[in-house]
Amino acid sequence: MDAPDIHIRSVGTALPGPAIDNAALRRRFGMPSLWEQWIDEFVGTHRRHLAVDLESGEVRHSLADLGELAGRRALDGARLDPRDVDLVVMGTSSPDLLMPATVNEIADRLGIDQVPSYQLQSGCTGAVQALDVASQMLRSGRRRTALVLGGDTCAKHFDVTMDVASLRPEEQINGVLFGDGAGAVVLSTEPAAGSAVLKHVFVRLVGRNRPPGQIVEWFGRADRGTGRPPVVEDYKAIEHSVPLLAAEAFEELLGELDWKNDELEYLMPPQLSGRMTARITKGLSAPAAQEISLVAEIGNTGNALPFFQLEAALPRMAAGERAAAVAVESSKWIKAGFGLEKV
């Protein structure tokens, strides 16, 4: 028997708090106006939403809070009850706790129980990895409906009382690149009006003998006094490697689908920053495709961003139209992508 098509029935997303622009960051950290100009021009990200209060540093939203809201919106959009879900998969690089897994906290809040659940820890390809795991399990015929989640709350790694001017550039960059958020989709073997078919998903580790592009520490009581910075990013390595890996992933995805470059109506490129995304997109040959990018307005929300792109793309797609998405994980280098076709 042929494997069933996997349909994206609905998408839900969630952002914490109001948007914070670059001027607000400059004022909060007492930086010069040239610093704000540097963010606008060099980074190209203008706003982001943070799960912590910028003034006090108090955590106002957990990843579970955002994931629950996104999950509810996705289930409502699909007109499904939590009892209809028979599989939950989540991708994140910043779970609330090491244990219990955030995916299980979200499932509990949504009223989902007695089903398989999986949490994948990864950077910006985690959402695609979650889609891959869920779609493969659905194609086996043993499950019909999956809730797939992705999100990150990176702001909890930063101290809002720090002297930003004293930080190295590779530490400063993380404070302006990232935002917090979560997203969810309902995947099903059963079609619905307006659904899109997930035609192909691929994930490939390409990090052998390559130093990490980003390191996020996790401190316990024994090692928290080491003085190591919590987050370090080799932005030069990322700037060099991500466009190349994105182009490779794009060509591999089209080859697997037997699609031509000019047959795409929509392109969802990696969402590192406004400036980097523009550079990456130039290297992806899709002359007729409309770019779906949101990073300049909401920041790099990690594993949430593919869901924001899907939320923007799906209502625009007409029957027969195609979309391609590409993601790159730069901590230990993963390239990934997926293709969609509206039915």
Automatic annotation (TrEMBL):
Highest taxon of the lineage: Bacteria
GO molecular function, one term: beta-ketoacyl-acyl-carrier-protein synthase III activity
Main enzyme class: transferase
Residue ranges of every copy of the Beta-ketoacyl-[acyl-carrier-protein] synthase III N-terminal domain listed in the record: 120-199
Keywords: Acyltransferase, Cytoplasm, Transferase
Transmembrane segments: none
InterPro entries with a match to the protein in the record: ACP_syn_III_N, Thiolase-like
Pfam families assigned to the protein according to its UniProt record, in alphabetical order: ACP_syn_III
E.C. numbers: 2.3.1.180
Protein name: 3-oxoacyl-[acyl-carrier-protein] synthase 3 protein 1
This protein's encoding gene: fabH2
